[in-house]
Design brief:
The protein is 43% helix and 13% strand. It has 504 residues and is an alpha/beta fold. The strands form three sheets. Strands 1-9-8-7-6-2-3 form a seven-stranded mixed β-sheet, sandwiched between helices. It has a four-stranded antiparallel β-sheet with strand order 10-11-13-12. The mean pLDDT is 93.
Length: 504
């Protein structure tokens, strides 16, 4: 698996770490010189490369340009600030530009990520999270604040409200606004959205599925508009777009116009528009490729949303845990997530600083250096590298889907017999959902496949029946190599099952 270039990079990193750890920790400087920080900042990427630099140049850049600008929080015995343990552990959640380049690296990583996903960095702000679950919590917390403020303004003829959730709490703010609830309208929501609604005090019972039909993730726009109108005096609303449903990879919108219609409803009713894009937001990387027009269309128009949740540890293929949250309302985020009366977390920077302290944009006050792997991989692969990776993943998923569609012992979900091969091919993203036609085999299918230890899949339920799920998100996938393995495993499982049934 390891080629000579990769092996050489690992050897270089090992040598660098070994040299550092052999230094006298008692004598090591706790903070880098100001000149080192400035030099590190000057050498950071400002734009996503069209073609990546490769891992050798990326490794050299991190060792030679970035690490001299980091503090020695986990290396020096005399650093008595944040508690850290790894070689270059940092707490980038607190922006300390005169002590470390860490939060600047993360700011650049977010900007490169926005460029990859075709969101304008001048319009959006962002923060790294533990994953899309935490990012959905962020989205509902900000949405909750925004929609209650809008309700207060309607009630008091446009005056800026003296009450808000962040300062006075959800109950007091809702009472002042004359609201009975905050409702979330979505389609085929991921379980994390229900968890986020619970954490945010909205309540799982106030998450409503307004899909056009049972196996279709698209919004029923007429029903949604009716609900918003009927509840406008008693409830504030958050609309959530499921961009890449967890079991099928399907998209809740099918182009710019459908997102624009949702945006128009939000503007009219004072609602917040959030995107759960853990998987699907990366379909934006396929923009302009005719072969993937149908799936890329599902991620069009997302720039009209107020906030977006995404996962780095999925299609970005960086280590757990890593998610990201993007938002077009930085001021609102600072109102909700501000750290009042925490003098020891005061950055002491100029109020006009272009990089706000991330601790005032998200839930966490301290966390690991999540942005560093993101920055490194975006530099190494670039836009074309990530596009090529996703192309391989989608092609593999489509090949598996067509194989299952044609197989006499398996059923491709959903509605495979109502869709022709062309539609299956065009609309498959990276997830393939299927079941065995024989119910008894289907009940054991996931365990029988995984017990072969050649491929690993996950189990789920579709229409209250067990189903199997293949998510083609691995960066190493190759259709010409991996499709045959999947076919062999599935064939073996069916044959062995049939033999057992015959013996019985």
């Amino acid at each position: 698996m390891l080629n000579d270039e990769q092996a050489g990079c690992l050897e270089r990193v090992h040598a660098h770490a070994n040299a550092l750890l052999r230094e006298d920790a008692y004598l090591m400087r706790t903070l880098p010189d100001a000149s080192k920080i400035q030099e590190a900042e000057s050498r950071l990427l400002t734009d996503l490369p069209e073609r990546g630099t490769g891992i050798e140049r990326m490794t050299g850049h991190l060792i030679e340009d970035v690490t001299p600008g980091l503090n020695a929080s986990s290396l020096s015995t005399n650093y008595y600030g944040f508690v850290t343990v790894a070689l270059y552990d940092q707490n980038p959640q607190v922006h300390l530009p005169d002590q470390t380049v860490a939060s600047t690296v993360e700011d650049r990583a977010l900007r490169l990520l926005m460029q990859l996903l075709r969101f304008e960095p001048a319009t959006w702000s962002g923060v790294f999270t533990t994953g899309a679950t935490a990012s959905n919590v962020h989205g509902l917390l900000l949405g909750r604040e925004y929609v209650i403020i809008q309700a207060l303004r309607r009630r008091f003829s446009g005056l800026d409200p003296a009450v808000n959730v962040g300062a006075h709490g959800l109950i007091a703010a809702c009472r002042a606004a004359g609201l009975e609830s905050v409702d979330v309208y979505t389609t085929m929501p991921h379980s994390s959205l229900l968890k986020a609604a619970s954490v945010a005090g909205i309540g799982r019972c106030n998450v409503h599925d307004v899909a056009s039909c049972k196996e279709n993730i698209l919004f029923d726009m007429e029903s949604l508009a009716d609900l918003l109108e009927k509840r406008r005096d008693k409830s504030a609303a958050i609309i959530v777009i499921s961009c890449g449903e967890v079991n099928t990879g399907m998209f809740a919108t099918d182009g710019y116009e459908s997102v624009l219609a949702l945006r128009s409803l939000c503007d009219w009713y004072g609602a917040w528009l959030h995107v759960d894009g853990a998987f699907g937001v990366f379909a934006r990387v396929l923009h302009g490729l005719p072969e993937f027009e149908d799936v890329s269309r599902g991620a069009q128009g997302l720039g009209l949303a107020d906030s977006i949740a995404g996962d780095g540890h999925k299609l970005l293929n960086v280590p757990y845990d890593c998610g990201f949250f993007l938002c077009r309302h930085r001021g609102l985020a600072q109102e909700v997530f501000q750290n009042a009366n925490a003098a020891y977390l005061n950055t002491g920077t100029d109020p006009g600083e272009s990089i706000p302290s991330p601790l005032n944009l998200g839930i966490e006050n301290s966390r690991r250096f999540r942005g560093l792997p993101v920055y490194a991989t975006l530099m190494a692969y670039g836009r074309k590298g990530y596009q090529a990776m996703l192309v391989r993943q989608v092609r593999f998923a489509r090949a598996v889907a067509l194989y299952l569609h044609n197989h006499k012992d398996f059923e491709l979900l959903p509605n495979s017999r109502q869709r022709g091969k062309d539609e299956i091919f065009r609309k498959t993203f990276i997830i393939v959902l299927f079941r065995a036609k024989e119910e008894a085999l289907n009940a054991e299918l996931v365990s029988r496949i995984n017990n072969k230890a050649q491929v690993y899949i996950s189990g789920t339920f579709w229409n209250s029946r067990p189903a199997s799920r293949i998510a083609a998100a691995n960066w190493q996938v190759k259709t010409e190599r991996d499709l045959g393995v999947v076919q062999d495993v599935l064939t073996t499982v069916v044959i062995q099952w049939s033999v057992v049934q015959h013996v019985r």
